[in-house]
């Protein structure tokens, strides 16, 4: 039996310890905010935070996160008002919206590490997260907004 | 209109609904044929009927204008408006209900949008494709809103015993200004529901100067908050009690089939419960499943792992030798020989022979995969002769029809619930993944989710066609273009429906080939034969991508050949402001619209060029290694011109500092979403130009994921995309927004690269061609 902590809550798993965290979150726990995009850590749609760092849950197994704090989009802020989430809404970032949980988690992790990232730092940090609709200009604007309040 | 919170529960109003029985297949075959009923409708004027017609009634099941179907008002005043088109990122789930709210004077903050299930008899056509939603539904949605408003006003007038002409709906209330009385929509709901639905002919639409929402600007999409907190419900997010998870191994070659399989290792994977065959259809399989072997498990991860352990023997069938290298050579060879003439004006052979100079451009664009961020996925629950499906589909009505046929049950017994789509781009117009889920659920007797992996998506897509485009342009001694021959060779989408299809359908020819708008005396368009060896389908902008690329690249080549500015050359080719006559074109498609309402208007084409040139700083001086390129294209009856600035460094690394785009999409609803669509179109255009290529070897797709089929990431995206929306005239019909932004991007980029480097790229993608 594996015990892991997700959004502050203990969860048990008695199945395959190698199961990717993504599918544990989505199919076994029912936290569907984290999305599947590629299964190979190429697109970032499945990004969650593990110990405050952005992690691709599609290539992270359940056993990898034992004893660590997993935070998903559902647990980022109790009322959904994290500065990144608020900025996202103010800038009207999403189109289809599917990649946005991953984008927001990546951006939130970036701001923990670097509270005032510049243009190049944002582009570098966000380059693992694909948006096929092409919201990139607004993603950058929203991160600037979240980091500066301007 | 009714007083229940859930309008879907109400039945019995079907007699109000106009039904046109046209099967999907008939429509597909007749896409290019004019005729049929058309809906007469005004634009922003106040009469319910007048100014223009659309092709909306030619779509399967046509249009339904009935407030009882689309609007519900609860006693607390909450107005529920049905969204009957699918949301894949264009904002349609917001814009169409917004039109109803505007016209009925509902307060948008007290409106709830509810997604309609697939039911075209009830809601009218639901095929969310072809950039049609606003252009087909602006007027019907206004009529629905105006009907609802009239019913509320009539109910209030009766209650106050005053003439209906003395009362007026204003922001969620009906007001009698003479007496100062007012009453909320919620209080009126029960009475209003008893009113008869007024005749469309007598409706008074709002004066556009009183609009609060339409065309005004910053309306956020209704799902914005849910998206940012992870609560938005996509196809992948449906979970049902007892649901099993399935991943399918499909024949690696189109038209292939499973011979045998060994599930021994797969069954050893923890969480795997069953391995079973999935029925496939012979090629061309239309939207039916490809067949194969399904691994059923307790979660998706186990199903994927189980499939990896599966051993399957395939029979590759007739396409087992398909090879993109030799196929390209075939297409290019065909483009050098005469083909079926699909447009002819003057005598192009004589004019080319007599020309002072002939410029020839041969262009090649490979297959593209859609790679919407949400790969195909669907949940089905089939019990006896009833089926319920939850799926991200662009065609809820078609999915319902196809599921009924596939399962052999009546259509009325099939419910298709439409989730949000994590991207669509045309892929999700084909419902094969929903049919797979339905077949598996039927056999297993439990709800089943079928999940496609990214590799499944790339390898079993309905690909954007591959195309060889060849243009010969003849110039007289003054540098005027006097002859234009364009041959376009590409396997047709029709091949997915009918074997031995070798010519493009009128709807494909009409996307930038036969509708070429230049003022040239001798024009000939030809479509040599091309056989398909894989599934071809609609991809955002469809055939406009190769055609705009070829035509607008040729404009750049002609500018260079005659030592002229690209924009000046472009405007000279467009010629005088006029309505283009295309008498020699049989079955002129014009996006399914009546040509009178949506003619090719070169004044509008010129205007987007002039506006983008003025606002986008055409001719500005740029640093060394930078270049500007321009292109214009009319598609989905909208006009779009784009200027791209590129920078190419001494190693050949390409970046895009700036993009400027002007769009004339006629009367528009939500400019905020027009901006986002155009910004996204630049990214998609850059993706296909820089990287987009799907290839085949031994009949199999050679790519599988974002490592070998890359798309643009934020670090390569344009630094800024400026969007200029042309203000419509008072009676300009609305036209497409979702797709028209893509086609001009790649040729503008290529023309810019030429300006920066002197290198003319004629083969897509750019790949390593600029590297030194």
User: Approximately what portion of the residues of chain A adopt beta-strand conformation?
Assistant: 5-15%
Mean pLDDT of chain B comes to: 93
Name the beta content range of chain B: 15-25%
The backbone outline of chain B, from C-alpha atoms, is globular
* Chain-averaged pLDDT of chain A: 97
Strand order of the largest sheet of chain A: 2-1-5-3-4
Main sheet: strands, sense, barrel of chain B = 7 strands, mixed
Number of helices of chain B: 20
Major interchain interface with per-chain residue totals: A-B, 60 and 68 residues
In spatial order, strands of the major sheet of chain B run 11-12-9-19-16-17-18
Let me know the largest β-sheet of chain A. Answer: 5 strands, mixed
What is the count of β-strands of chain A?
A: 5
How far the N terminus sits from the C terminus of chain A, by CA atoms, comes to 48 Å
The helix tally of chain A amounts to 5
Name some characteristics of this structure.
heterodimer, A: 150 residues, alpha+beta, five-stranded mixed sheet, 5 helices, 5 strands, 34% helix, globular, B: 772 residues, seven-stranded mixed sheet, 20 helices, disordered N terminus
């Amino acid at each position: 039996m594996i015990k892991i902590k997700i959004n502050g809550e203990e969860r048990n798993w008695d199945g395959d310890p190698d199961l990717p965290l993504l599918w544990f979150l989505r199919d076994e726990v029912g936290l569907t905010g984290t999305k599947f995009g590629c299964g190979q850590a190429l697109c970032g749609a499945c990004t969650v935070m593990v110990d405050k760092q952005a992690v691709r849950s599609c290539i992270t197994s359940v056993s990898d996160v034992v004893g660590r704090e997993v935070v998903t989009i559902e647990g980022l802020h109790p009322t959904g008002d994290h500065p990144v989430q608020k900025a996202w809404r103010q800038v009207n970032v999403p189109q289809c919206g599917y990649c946005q949980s991953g984008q927001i988690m990546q951006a939130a992790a970036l701001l923990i590490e670097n509270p005032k990232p510049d243009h190049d730092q944002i582009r570098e940090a966000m380059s693992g997260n694909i948006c096929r609709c092409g919201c990139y200009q607004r993603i950058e604007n929203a991160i600037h907004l979240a980091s500066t309040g301007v | 209109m009714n007083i229940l919170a859930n309008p879907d529960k109400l039945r019995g109003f079907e007699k109000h609904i106009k039904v046109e029985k046209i099967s999907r297949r008939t429509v597909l075959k007749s896409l290019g044929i004019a005729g049929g009923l058309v809906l007469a409708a005004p634009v922003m004027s106040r009469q319910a009927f007048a100014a223009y017609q659309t092709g909306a009634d030619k779509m399967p099941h046509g249009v339904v204008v009935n407030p009882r179907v689309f609007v519900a008002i609860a006693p607390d005043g909450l107005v529920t408006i049905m969204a009957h088109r699918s949301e894949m990122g264009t904002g349609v789930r917001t814009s169409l209900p917004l039109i109803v709210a505007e016209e009925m004077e509902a307060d948008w903050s007290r409106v709830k949008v509810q997604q309609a299930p697939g039911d075209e008899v009830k809601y009218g056509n639901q095929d969310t494709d072809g950039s049609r939603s606003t252009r087909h539904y602006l007027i019907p949605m206004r009529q629905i809103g105006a009907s609802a408003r009239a019913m509320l006003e009539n109910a209030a007038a009766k209650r106050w015993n005053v003439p209906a002409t003395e009362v007026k709906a204003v922001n969620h209330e009906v007001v009698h200004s003479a007496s100062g009385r007012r009453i909320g929509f919620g209080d009126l709901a029960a009475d209003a529901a008893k009113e008869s639905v007024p005749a469309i002919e007598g409706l008074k639409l709002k004066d556009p100067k009183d609009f609060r929402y339409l065309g005004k600007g910053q309306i956020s999409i209704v799902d914005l908050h849910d998206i940012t907190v992870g609560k938005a419900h996509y196809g992948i997010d449906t979970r049902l009690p007892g649901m099993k998870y399935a991943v399918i191994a499909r024949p690696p070659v189109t038209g292939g089939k499973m011979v045998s399989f060994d599930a021994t290792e797969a069954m050893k994977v923890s969480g795997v419960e069953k391995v079973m065959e999935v029925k496939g259809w012979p090629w061309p399989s239309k939207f039916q499943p490809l067949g194969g072997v399904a691994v059923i498990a307790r979660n998706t991860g186990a199903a994927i792992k189980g499939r990896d352990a599966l051993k399957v023997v395939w029979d590759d069938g007739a396409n087992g030798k398909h090879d993109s290298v030799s196929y390209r050579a075939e297409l290019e060879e065909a483009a050098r020989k005469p083909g079926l003439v699909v447009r002819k004006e003057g005598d192009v052979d004589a004019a080319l022979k007599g020309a002072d100079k002939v410029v020839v451009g041969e262009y090649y664009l490979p297959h593209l995969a859609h790679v919407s961020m949400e790969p195909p996925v669907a949940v089905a629950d089939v019990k006896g002769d009833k089926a319920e499906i939850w799926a991200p589909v662009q065609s809820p009505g078609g999915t319902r029809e196809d599921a009924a046929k596939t399962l052999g049950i009546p259509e009325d017994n099939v419910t298709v619930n439409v989730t949000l789509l994590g991207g669509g781009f045309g892929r999700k117009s084909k419902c094969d993944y929903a049919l797979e889920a339905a077949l598996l659920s039927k056999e297993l007797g439990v709800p089943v989710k079928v999940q496609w992996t990214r590799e499944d998506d790339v390898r079993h897509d309905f690909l954007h066609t591959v195309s060889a485009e060849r243009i010969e342009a003849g110039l007289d001694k003054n540098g005027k273009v006097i002859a234009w021959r364009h041959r376009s060779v590409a396997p047709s989408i029709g091949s997915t429906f009918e074997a031995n299809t070798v010519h493009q359908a009128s709807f494909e020819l009409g996307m930038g080939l036969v509708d070429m708008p230049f003022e040239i005396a001798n024009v000939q368009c030809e479509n040599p034969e091309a056989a398909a060896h894989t599934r071809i389908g609609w991809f955002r902008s469809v055939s406009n991508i190769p055609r705009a690329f070829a035509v607008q690249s040729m404009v750049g080549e002609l500018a260079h050949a005659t030592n002229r500015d690209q924009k000046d050359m472009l405007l000279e080719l467009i010629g005088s402001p006029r309505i283009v006559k295309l008498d020699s074109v049989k079955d002129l498609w014009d996006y399914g619209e009546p040509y009178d309402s949506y003619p090719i208007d070169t004044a509008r084409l010129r205007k987007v060029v002039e506006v983008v040139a003025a606002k986008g700083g055409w001719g500005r001086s740029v640093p060394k290694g930078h270049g500007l390129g321009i292109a214009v294209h009319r598609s989905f009856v909208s006009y779009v011109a784009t200027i791209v600035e590129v920078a190419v460094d001494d190693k050949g690394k390409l970046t895009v500092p700036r993009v400027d785009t002007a769009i004339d999409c006629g009367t528009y609803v939500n400019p905020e979403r027009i901006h986002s669509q155009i910004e996204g179109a630049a990214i998609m255009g850059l993706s296909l130009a820089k990287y987009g290529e799907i290839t085949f070897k031994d009949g199999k797709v050679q790519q599988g994921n974002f490592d070998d089929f890359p798309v643009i990431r934020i670090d390569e995206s344009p630094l800024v995309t400026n969007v200029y929306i042309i203000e419509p005239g008072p009676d300009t019909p609305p036209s497409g927004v979702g797709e028209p932004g893509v086609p001009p991007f790649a040729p503008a980029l290529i023309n810019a690269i030429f300006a920066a480097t002197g290198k003319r790229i004629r083969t897509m993608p750019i790949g390593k061609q600029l590297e030194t």
